[in-house]
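cache lookup: miss for this entity combination. No prior model stored, computing from scratch. Input as submitted by user K.M.:
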Amino acid sequence: MLGTKRNLNETDDRFNDENVDSNNNNNNNNNSNGSKRFKTNLISFEKKSNTATTSITSTTSTPVIPLGSQKRINITSFSGHRITRVIKSQNTENISTSLSKSNILFNDLLKKPINEILEEIENTESLKLKSELIKNSNSLTPTKSKGVEELAKNKDNRLWVDKYAPSSFHDLLSDTTMNLEVLNWLELWDHIVFGKPLPKNLVMPSTFGNNGNNNNNSGTGGYINRFNSKFTTSSNSNQQHQNQGQYLLQEDGTPIAKIILLTGGPGLGKTTLAHVLAKQANYTPVEINASEDRSGEAFESKLLSAIEMKSLFNDKKPNCLIIDEIDGISGRDNGPIELLIKLIDNSLKIGNTKKSTGGSTGAKKSGGKDGESSDNEEEDDEYDEEEEQSENGSSTTKTTKGKKGKKKGFTTRLLRPIICICNDQYVPSLRKLRQKAMVFDFQAPKKHELLSRLKVICSNEGLTASDATLNSLIDMTGSDIRACINSLQFIKSKTSVLNSDILKNKSNIVIGQKDMEKGLVEIWNNIFKTSTVNNKNNNNSNSNNNNNNSSVLSKIPSKKSNESSGGNEYLNQLDFQIGACNQVDKLLDGVYENFLTNMSSDYTMEKTMDCLDWMVFGDQMLNIHADEKYRSLVPLAVHQRCTTYSPKIQLPHSDYDNFIKKKSNTNIKDSFYSDLPATIYSYLTKKCFVIDFIYPFIDILSLPVRVTNVQLYSQTEKFNLNRLIEIMKFYRLSYKLEKVNNFNKQLPQKKLIDVLDGDDEESRHKKLNQQTQDVAMQYKLEPPIDSLLYFQNQDPKTMVKHIRLSHSQKQIISIAVQQYKPPQKSTQPTVTNTDENQKQKEQSKKPTIITSKEEFKKPLVPTVLKDFFGRVIQTSPETKKKTMGPTPGPNIKYRFQEGFTNAVKKTVYVKDFL
Amino acid sequence: MLWIDKYKPTSLDKMDYHNDISINLKNMIKSGDFPHLLVYGPSGAGKKTRILAVLQEIYGPNALKLKIDHRTFKHPTSSKSIQITTISSHYHIEINPGEAGSYDRVVIQTIIKEIAQSPPIDSASLGAFKIVILNEVDKLSKDAQHALRRTMEKYATFCRLILCCDSTAKVIDPIKSRCLGIRVPAPSQDDIEKVLYKVATAEKFDLPAKLAVNVAKQSGGNLRYALMLLESQKAKQYPFQSSELPLLDWENYIGQIVKDCFEEQSPTRLSIVRGKLYELLGHCIPPELIFKTLLLEIFKKLDHDMKFEIIHWASYYEHRSQIGSKPIFHLEAFIAKFMSIYKKYNQ
């Protein structure tokens, strides 16, 4: 059984066309197809109309491609037409016959009464005749060809690109398999949008749904990803695909993949595909161009209106949203994409939590309503079901009560297909969306298909061009359909004959080669790879090498080159690639990092030197000329000096590593400077610090103190230690006890052992190593300026030897520093009375917070020593006692709390509290 | 306190060397007014010490009561905010505009304008102007220097600039002409030794003559380094046993690089050297200093004939590295050049 209602009109037209010029010369196309395809069916159509009777006797057809919901067959006629038909399975038919025998003729076999079809055909035929009449009256009788239908209606007014834009599924140039997959996805929505019966075998079972619910993002995302990979890679493994993709729908009938993302280079027909398929599937395509509506609100209103409403005028078809150039929504304002993702998540959740009561779950109300417009009759039953459903639904957001309860918040479920289109799916802002969406990666159309299309256009427009010329045009544009057609139109405006000279002669033609963005790695590879022709000219090496390298040339789109100019040709291509690359900095970094390893042999170092000279030149040009004209020459120069047959390319990282290292070192330095006393700060510039200050300074800090009790130190030892502490205090340094994990700790210890030459010391440090392993704590200088000392890859013999303090030595110093603190910290003394008992009693009376001013004014402590900054200097307890002793009145305990207060300060005397 | 801080002279009278400069400065201050100053000379020669001594000479000891401020200001046009540290007393302010990176021009204009707009509070008694000290003027971008040119004249009534830099080579001529240049040369070896002995007597320890000579020699006219070196030696080994002195770590490291270059000249060796050069740059060692040290290290082992060629190329690449922005290219190019020349010479 063949034929769906939707396709019927078009096929009728199509066959009529064929009838008109059935003897057209399209064998070329047929041959190429026929080699792969085999005859499977003989399908005959018989159709009666007023004007003509068409019959096709034989067709070639592709194997059945079972995808998604329906099995389809791809039929290609001898004249190059591709037609896709849904094969209805025998089973469903049987069921339907048993259910309603009376309806079978109208509903299942043809979906439409035959007289209706005939009427439609009549109408279209008459339209066609009319248009032909108009054409004839204009005395323009282009040879009409099939596949391109609406030619030359109003000639020269439109761009050829628009004029020859495919209007039906069969005109699409992109990969048929993928087209079908997209179409299938669109048809998955049929249930929810048009209210068609739910294909049960596709519904995700509830177990799966629960899983998906538990970890919503990862589960479904993973699933979709798996799904994606299938789409992009396999077109052959149909059987497998069916198994994998059988659960395409959620329980509520919405497809699991809510959104599809079409990606691919410009001019491959993504937008066209989306529009054509949307029309094909009976939707009104609504395009939101993200490059126009970038702001969040504008986008949101457009989006919601597109999803929820439908046009009054356009045939009352439901909308299919096409978001074009979604990668144009970039970085700063990611609102629109967030919105989309929210929408998807929301509907996923709802879909999964929903419990299905019957075999066919209810479509959402609006979905059913839209279905009304399509002339399907079974909806009324579904409405009832759906109302029950919505009561049961556990989701909070979904509150559809009756038919008219049209409530949509932002939390709506997604009930319309959304197609997103972008050039680069790896744009950062699309990262989240990519995980949720089903991704279709567009490849360049098959050359012969594009070629035949171009030929059709040429013949229609009266442009003579040979196949070879058109082929090279395709090559030049990188199979960009749009660019090809535009170029043709441009050429037509100049001349009516397109020959290879026009294309080749660069001075004549203005068609630019399309900037193809090659991956950086590929460019690096090409730079360091010996070109074939160079090889031939210079070395006369054997054919084996030539074979290997010819692949390099073939990779790069090339015009035919004769042998003598071959070297230049390769350089030109390389130049072109580099010019097309927009990351010249990165490119140069990569060249710099890789050229030494790929330098084959350079005994005199001349070549290396030359390469580096070029790098220097490039670096100079960076600041002199803002444009990258000169810098892009550098890789070419390197290429001429340094190539190998099998280049090893590493991604450049050392420059970045160095940057990070420098930054961390600078940070250490800055943290040292951050609380340096002003006098030092002024004298010691940061440059000097690194150059000549830090190294001896560290030596001074690592005073080899004796590891015993500090009390046992001799006079000089004590003096030295004190001095060290003073210095450390002055420069705001301290030792901090830090937990180090084993791995990190081992390293410095090993270094330490390397450094010390003496055997005794070495063994000592080994012991120390073990010891610290147990402790797992290490003293570190804070800020860790000593780390500025270490240079990597030092020759241990000639290395400068610094004394590294042992753990215990550091401990002694650290303790000494801490003990030194109290006299320094005298700035916030707690002046307490000695009598503890009294203190307790006074507790209640004591004010908790007294500002410093009060303290100074307090008569009880007449002599408060202050340092320059007005801070109190602590006096020894004895002197305190003395001053406190004679004071009359009760003993008062007070505490000075350091800190800043915004409170209003008022002079309060102590006597006020008494 | 470190000795360098402890024994830093605070007034012009107490300077240990270059007394003629001190006398000139004193006379200049006595005359009541002086032009903008451009103090230049090698690192560790005592530029900053003299500048602060001049301040003290003008304003008295209060000028040395410094405080640090971390200030942020708004870029006038863009929304970016710039952070900079200022050191100031009542009478002067010291900034290092280089900290602001490419925004140094903004910093200079804002700060100087801010200071110079209001006359000093106490204009009668002391100098009728405030002083702005700009450090590392040679690191200023050309933009900033040109901006400085106008500012210097416009606010000359209330404000004197003291510019401080290592070399005037990168200071544009208009600025040089607006300033009185004061060169503070590196102290001679004798000067340094004298200071060393002075410190030794004050700290009450014996300084062997040989060690003093070695320290003075190694310091290369950098008094700060000389004192630090002596102090580190004192901490390491006292009483002094040997008069052998360790090199600075990075100098030593460059020595190793040069050794690598002499051992083998090949692309593979060059890539090892590259790693080490990166390491040096990562330690914030300025590339021009690396160039200089590389050259000096190479000279130690080089035949006389080749020296001219090498020195030519060293200056060639150093100059280019000043123009360019990636010092590693230039350093490596110089090494490659050297390897190539050396290899040819040996054949």
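stored under new cache key. The CA atoms of residues 308 and 314 of chain B lie 10 Å apart.
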